[in-house]
Amino acid sequence: MTTLALTVNDSATMLRRNLVRALRYPGLTVIVAAMPIVFLLLFVYVFGGTLGAGLGGPSGGRAEYVAYVVPGILVLAITGGAQGTAIAIAMDMTEGIIARFRTMSIARAAVLTGHVVGAVLQTLVGLAVVVAVALLVGFRPDANPVEWLAAAGLLTLVSVALSWLSVAMGLWTKTVEAASNVPMPLMLLPFFGSGFVPVESMPGALRWFAENQPFTPVIETLRGLLTGTAIGSSGWVAVAWCAGIALVGYLWAVRNYERRPAR
Amino acid sequence: MTDAISVRGLRKSFGPKVVLDGLDLTVPEGTVHALLGPNGAGKTTTVDVLSTLTPADGGEVRVAGHDLAREPRAVRAAIALTGQFSAVDALLTGAENLRLMADLHHLGRQEGRRRAAELLERFDLVDAAGQVPSTYSGGMRRRLDLAMGLMGRPRVVFLDEPTTGLDPRSRRAMWDAVRGLVADGVTILLTTQYLEEADQLADRIGVLDSGRLVAEGTADELKRLVPGGHVRLQFGDAATVRAAARVLGVPAADGLVLEVPGDGGVAELRALLARLDDARVDVAALTVHTPDLDDVFLALTGRPAAEEVPA
Fold first, then answer.
1. Element (H, E) at A224
2. Residues 6 or more apart in contact with residue A135 via CB below 8 angstroms
3. Which of B174, B194, B224 is the last residue of a domain?
């Protein structure tokens, strides 16, 4: 087999291992999937009436806010998944079997790739559930199939980027507890962007930050694809951010994995 | 006979702490070599370096004919490591753990299942195959660990304290498993704190202290290295004891027993008995006392051997 075929083969084996583990230990997956749904319901039913009125659209109110908040919730769901991934890999590193993998002639990146692909698949399932709940509470997207596909593609890209970053974080931290805390700022980022309120409503410095952080172009692109608002340059900026985060996350993760103490 | 492991001047430090200080080690193919030493002597670090887990700071290492630094993949393809921390996946069943190894060795579905079943049988794990390792006893877990290592048919197996914390029965089962490997022609590097284990399993024993080999040889050679060996002679009456003491030039002890220092070698015994014969002194009984490895360890390192670690 060629090196590439070996890498794909070993990564697929590790992916199967991670999916079985996720099924055997579902608590983490369930919490990660439930969190964005709780936030969706909270923001639609508790804050939605007031925040929707503040959007200043023709109708205003809760229905309009549902349309506004769903892209932010989807991104929040991915960050929740990233936290789960960091915890999962930190837990995995405490198992003796990782040392065994490192003494075996298997593709070096396979252990990490298996985690990333597994995390992305779990996140996509979680996102599908969030979209279903959003539709139930009144989300009415006007996207055509191509736009749905593009939105799914962007969500996958964001998930891949944040998974590599969270794998790196999970490897970098020394304990499982720390691994659950380090990705926290990621979960706050959608709030300091255009996820829940328009950036125009924020004061000076915060607004500058909100406009220039990576999640805002992602959220703006999703909003445009799903509900037909203007996308402008957000699409390319979002893709560029994702590519950059994925690359940094990948390099950091591989470096951490190679440099970890033996056991 | 070629060497499965050859180590020249291996050095490794963690920060300012020197763990391996110019270690030399040669293990011929198909033999069992035990590294004996207390906690912190550098046993685990040696295994970590030889199994490619930790890079060395200096020295030349060849494992299974491959240079460790230049061809780590080739080394990995030829080795297996069973550590003191069980390297099994806690969330997969015993059979799944083995099939995971089969997949990583690219054995194919059929062959993988066949080998997994075979190893479960060999290591007496058939009944536990469908259960996760958390339900296993310590001994079963080590056996699963070893079975997983054998999936790839390694030529060199590293056993890092394979029986630490096991009860005597599980320990003997593990020893039997190791002897089975030797019968298959596998080379084994074993680390242990238990002198009896080294004595039972190893062809040669290296005594490791502060990152250096302080002695090396067969168990018998090591025992002969240290003082403390003696021949114990028993006589029929007090007059004979006094006569024997005069002939042999050793102080007369209380009772009817004399202890003559010596290693108990055949030539020495023959000479000893010849001198007593010439003086017409009758010996009632004779026993040879060789020091055990505990004596060896104490003599070589100035410290007693294994401080038992709570498992």
1. helix A215-227
2. none
3. B224
Half-sphere exposure of B145 (CA within 13 A, CB side): 32
Q: Is the pLDDT of residue B83 over 70?
A: yes
Contacts of B83 (CB under 8 A, 6+ apart): A96, A99, A100, A263, B47, B145, B160, B161
Does the distance separating the beta carbons of A10 and B83 come in below 8 Å?
no
Q: For residue B46, is it within any domain? A: yes
Supply the range of the domain harboring residue B265. Answer: 228-290
Nearest chain A CA: its distance from B302 CA (Å)? 30
Whether residue B310 is predicted with pLDDT greater than 50 in this model: the reply is: no
CATH of the domain at B173: 3.40.50.300
Same domain for B173 and B251? no
3-state secondary structure of A189: coil
- Predicted TM-score (pTM) of this structure: 0.79
B85 part of contact set with chain A, CB < 8 Å: yes
Taking only the tens place, the pLDDT of each residue in B154-167 is 999 999 988 888 88
Of B232, B233, B230, nearest to B282 by C-alpha is B233
Interface check for A261 against chain B (CB to CB < 8 A): the answer is yes
pLDDT score for A75? 95
Q: Are residue B40 and residue B117 in the same domain, yes or no?
A: yes
Residues B115 and B233 both lie in one domain = no
Q: Is residue B297 part of a domain?
A: no
Kindly determine whether residue B89 and residue A21, on different chains, have CB atoms separated by under 8 Å.
Answer: yes
Q: Is A1 on the interface with B (CB under 8 A)?
A: yes
When CB atoms are compared, the residue of A1, A103, A106 closest to B53 is A103
Q: Are B253 and B211 within one domain?
A: no
Same domain? B158 vs B235: no
- Stretches in chain A below the pLDDT threshold 70: 1, 56-60, 261-263
What domain count does chain B have? Answer: 2
Distance CA B219, CA A20 (A): 47
Q: Which of residues 99-128 of A touch B (CB under 8 A)?
A: 99-106
Judge contact between A240 and A158, C-beta under 8 A: no
Q: Which of B175, B205, B224 is the last residue of a domain?
A: B224
Whether B92 has its CB under 8 Å from any CB of chain A: the answer is: yes
| Cβ-defined contact of A13 to B80 (cutoff 8 Å) | no
What is the structure's pLDDT at B65? 92
Q: Which of A3, A29, A100, A108 is the mutation pick for testing B, counting most B CBs within 10 A?
A: A100
Q: Do A103 and B51 touch (CB under 8 A)?
A: yes
Q: Can you tell me the ipTM of this complex?
A: 0.81
Q: B40 and B181 share a domain?
A: yes
**Each residue of B206-218: pLDDT tens digit?**
988 888 888 889 8
| Residue B272 confidence (pLDDT) | 87
